[in-house]
Amino acid sequence: MYVIIAGGGKVGYYLSKTLVAEGHEVLLIEQDKREVDRLAEELGQVVVRGDASEMRTMKEAGMARADVVVAVTGDDGDNLVISQLAKRKFGVPRTIARVNNPMNEELFHRLGIDQTVVSTKIIFNLIEQQIETDQVIPLAALRRGNIEVVEIDLSDDSPVLNDTVGMLELPPDTLIISVVRGEHALIPQADTRFESGDSVIALVKADREAELRAVFSGPGMA
């Protein structure tokens, strides 16, 4: 099976790595040169630099013979364009798109995208399903409280690397609910130490999101 993956972030990287290990033909398309160089060190020729939303890149990638196209960039607009072009211009049998904003999911389905993955919805479901019954946080209550589920990827220059959860000075009414490391989700404890490549999942008041991101990314980089 030939799978084209657009977006070399954490999702694209681990998906490519897993598919290659399973013996599939994979092409991972990423725009950022530094990311391409980093990914290529491990994945080799599977990784190419380009804008997966451009027709020229799609043609060069051999999208007409792809069995599946997976769009997992951090931009919903790009993911929608990539998936639509793959479906309509190249006749790809199956398209899968990451939807970062749950409000956009219905639009993706209306425009013919075969499958969508909404990480925020998945996290909400996990919150509802995995904590004890008497501690369930209803989704409606989260929305009424203007609370956001935020995912923050830690880079090599994040100011919190090697700090523990207990050392953080977080905005008021913020809760760290998980630290995703590699293919595993950790339940954070006070002594959980942050590493480069971690994804931090948190609940935060909507008007405090930028402040929270600054904690993990540094001033001016949120």
The major β-sheet equals: 6 strands, parallel
Described by the principal axes of the CA atoms, the overall outline is globular
Low-confidence stretches: 126-142
- In round numbers, the mean pLDDT is 82
Major sheet: arrangement of strands: 3-2-1-4-5-6
Helix and strand content put the structural class at alpha/beta
Q: State the name of the first-level CATH class of the largest domain.
A: Alpha Beta
The CATH superfamily name of the largest domain is NAD(P)-binding Rossmann-like Domain
Q: How far apart lie the N and C ends?
A: 39 Å
Number of helices: 8
Beta-strand portion reads 15-25%
- The CATH topology annotation of the largest domain reads as Rossmann fold
Q: Using the 3D structure, state the CATH architecture of the largest domain.
A: 3-Layer(aba) Sandwich
Give the helix proportion (percent range): 25-40%
- Please give the radius of gyration in angstroms: 19 Å
Order of secondary-structure elements: EHEHEHEHEHEHHEEEEH
Number of strands: 10
Q: What is the count of distinct domains?
A: 2
What does this structure look like?
Helix content is 34%, strand content 23%. It contains eight helices and ten strands. The strands form two sheets. The chain has a six-stranded parallel sheet with strand order 3-2-1-4-5-6, sandwiched between helices. The N and C termini lie far apart (39 Å). Mean pLDDT is 82; it is low at 126-142.
